[in-house]
């Protein structure tokens, strides 16, 4: 049975100074007063999931499967894959150590230690984000890990190919290894001492990032997953990963700051620590190939323009072990 969180614990949490994600363009929503939003229990498997293809069969999108053309796909390494389990299903998150190495290592360490198991989603705002990782609501000790220095931007070598889909005054938007990013143009690399340019991951829906206080170097263990576009956070909060499957399970997390009772993290595990019999195989379509360019072309409008980068889905193929439709412990 789910534990009932004492009311005084919620009062203690509300009176503290937890990490907050700037909601300058979002409104906190009371689910009880929002038409069409249900707080009832949801199915164990997210609505956008199926046993083999949580994001849909890539073949139905006109994209060859990894078994047919493996050169078109990049397989996600188990040490970079997180399995987030809630009552709404399993969400698979790919971490990006090239973008935020210290934050990724923090997530690996905390997930391996079991830190997140049993923690609530304590701040969930409609069409914005779902935040978790605070221990106050469940009266557990805070993490003993030190604060992290912000990794809001990273140095990108031109060898890390960016497939540009949009241009701005000082940066291009595009995909690097299937992650939506903004980056200074490659032409600037020849003018820098290290031959690289600045780039930063974007807060498109499905971004996994670290919460912090007003101190930019105060992130520790609290993270959030965006459920809407939050571009005002770009370059000021550390994006360390991206949902590859099960985003609908995130969208179903109960709204509130906090909700009462909140939805809980039933488990958050690192792929490389799980038995092979329980690991999902996840492939992301390479975004530096002519095949991906052809995929992008399908998104152009009548004038030949592409939509916003956040409106372009990179094909993902997920294969679970036989008879394993969800993470089991």
Largest sheet: number of strands, sense, barrel closure: 8 strands, antiparallel
C-alpha Rg, in Å? Answer: 20 Å
Quick one: how many beta strands? 16
Largest sheet: spatial strand order? 4-5-12-11-13-3-2-14
Name the helix and strand elements from N-terminus to C-terminus, one letter apiece. HEEEHEEEEEEEEEEHEEHE
Number of domains: 1
Full CATH superfamily name = Cyclophilin-like
Strand content: 15-25%
CATH architecture: Beta Barrel
Termini, distance in Å? 16 Å
CATH topology: Cyclophilin
Helix-and-strand structural type: alpha+beta
Q: Which oligomeric form is depicted? A: single chain
Shape assignment: globular
Quick recap:
With 329 residues, this protein is an alpha+beta fold.
Explain the overall architecture.
- The protein is built from 4 helices and 16 strands.
- The model is unreliable at 1-17, 28-57 and 325-329 (pLDDT under 50).
- A hairpin with a 2-residue loop joins strand 8 and strand 9.
- Helix content is 11%, strand content 23%.
- An 8-stranded antiparallel β-sheet has the order 4-5-12-11-13-3-2-14. It has a 5-stranded antiparallel β-sheet with strand order 6-10-9-8-7, with no helix packed on it. Strands 1-15-16 form a 3-stranded antiparallel β-sheet, with no helix packed on it.
- With 329 residues, it is α+β, with helices and mostly antiparallel strands.
- It has a single domain (20-319), classed as Cyclophilin-like (Cyclophilin, Beta Barrel), CATH 2.40.100.10.
């Amino acid at each position: 049975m789910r534990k009932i969180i004492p009311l005084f614990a919620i009062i203690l949490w509300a009176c503290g100074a937890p990490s907050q994600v700037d909601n300058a363009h979002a409104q906190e929503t009371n689910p009880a007063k929002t038409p069409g939003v249900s707080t009832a229990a949801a199915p164990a498997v997210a609505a956008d999931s199926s046993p083999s293809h949580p994001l849909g069969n890539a073949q139905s999108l006109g994209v060859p499967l990894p078994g047919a053309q493996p050169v078109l796909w990049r397989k996600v390494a188990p040490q970079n894959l997180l399995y987030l389990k809630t009552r709404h299903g399993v969400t698979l998150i790919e971490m990006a150590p090239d973008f935020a190495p210290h934050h990724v290592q923090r997530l690996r360490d905390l997930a391996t230690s079991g830190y997140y198991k049993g923690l609530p989603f304590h701040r969930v705002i409609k069409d914005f984000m779902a935040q978790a990782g605070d221990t106050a609501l469940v009266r557990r000790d805070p993490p003993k890990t030190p604060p992290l220095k912000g990794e809001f931007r990273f140095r990108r070598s031109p060898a890390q190919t960016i497939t540009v889909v949009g241009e701005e005054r000082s940066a291009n938007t595009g995909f690097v290894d299937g992650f939506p990013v903004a980056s200074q143009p490659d032409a600037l690399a020849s003018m820098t001492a290290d031959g690289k340019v600045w780039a930063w991951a974007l807060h498109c829906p499905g971004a996994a990032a670290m919460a912090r206080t007003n101190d930019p170097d105060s992130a520790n263990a609290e993270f959030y997953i965006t459920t809407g576009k939050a571009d005002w956070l770009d370059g000021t909060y550390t994006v360390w990963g991206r949902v590859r499957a099960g985003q609908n399970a995130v969208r179903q997390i109960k709204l509130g700051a906090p909700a009462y009772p909140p939805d809980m993290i039933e488990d958050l595990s690192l792929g490389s620590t799980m038995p092979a019999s329980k690991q999902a195989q996840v492939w992301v379509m390479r975004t530096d190939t002519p095949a991906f360019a052809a995929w992008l072309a399908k998104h152009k409008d009548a004038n030949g323009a592409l939509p916003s980068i956040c409106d372009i889905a990179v094909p993902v193929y997920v294969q679970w072990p036989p008879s394993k439709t969800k993470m089991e412990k």
